[in-house]
Queue: 2 jobs
Job 1
Amino acid sequence: MAVDVVSEVVIDRPLAEVAAYAGDPSNAPDWYVNIASVEWLTPPPLRVGSRVAFVAHFLGRRLAYTYEVVELAPGERLVMRTAEGPFPMETTYRWEPEGQGRTRMALRNRGEPSGFATVAAPVMAAAMRRANRKDLARLKALLEGRPA
C-alpha cells in the first residue's frame, strides 16, 4: 500500500518570503514538529543534487535519513527524495500566489513502504497527515509573527 499525504495552508506572507524560508532545509527544525536536526552534506545553497541529512522523531522512533533534491523551481516547487531504509519517501513543496501578499503552500509526502512497514502504512499515513497539518500551522504562525 502506497502512502500519499497532501496538506495545504494559506500563509499571509508574500510567496517569495514563504518559499525562501520553507525551502531552506536549515529552517526545518523551526517549523517541523518532529525534526530535531539538519546537516548539509553538500554545500548550500539548495540546488538539484543537494543532499541534506535529517534526524527526526516519528511514532516514538528516532529516524535518520538523507534527502536529495531531485527537482527545484525556485518559488514554485521543491522535490526531495530518499531511497534509504524501509520506507523510501518523496517530499514535495509547492507554492502558489493566493491573492495580494498571500501564499498557498502544499506539502506532499509519498512513499512505498516495504517489509514490516507495509503493515503499518495506514497508521503511518494518518500520523503523517496529523504531523503535516501541525507543521504547516507552525510555519504559518512563525511567518505571520504569531505564537505557534
Job 2
Amino acid sequence: MTDDLGSVARFLFEAGTLKQTKRTGWWMAGVRDPESVAEHSWRTALIASVIARLEGADPAQAAFLAVWHDSQESRTGDVNHLGKKYAPSADPVAVTADQVGGMPDVLASTIRDLVAEYEAKESLEAVCARDADKLECLIQGVEYKAQGYANAQRWIDNSRGRLTTKTANDLADAVLATDSLDWLRAALGERPM
C-alpha cells in the first residue's frame, strides 16, 4: 500500500469515531443517549440534497458539503453552543488540512475545498447544506420531544429561527405540522394524525 493511501485508510478509521461521538447539546435537553455526529451528518446530507434540488442548486454538491460539514469533530469532539462560549473554536479549515495531510493531492484538495466552501457560506449549495444542518436539528428535536424530552423545544425554536432559504422554511413548517410517525401511518395505509 502506498503511503498516501495509508493516510486515507487512517482517516477512514478516524471518521468512524463519529459513529460514537455524541451530539452534546442534546444532553442539556436531558436526552440520555443522543444521536451521534455520524447519524446527524447522514440525515443532513439527505436533507441538503432535497433543499438544493428545490432551490435550483446542485443536490449532489450540497449533499457532498453536508457529508463533510462536521468531519473535523473526530478531532475536536462535538462542542455545543454553550461550550463554544468558553473554549476557542477550532478552525474547521485548519483541522481539515491536518486531517488530509499525506492523502493523494486530488483527494486532499477536494476535501479542503469542500470544507472551505461550506465555511464560506457563499455558494447556494453551501447555504442549502447549512440550512439542512439546522433543519436536521429541528427534526431531531421534534423526535426527541415526541419521546418525552420537553426541553428539546429550545433546539426546535433556535433551529427554526436560523433557516434562510424558502424551501428550508417551508419544510420546517411542514415538519412542525406533521407527527413524527405520520410516515409509518401513511405507509400502512392509515390516516395520518
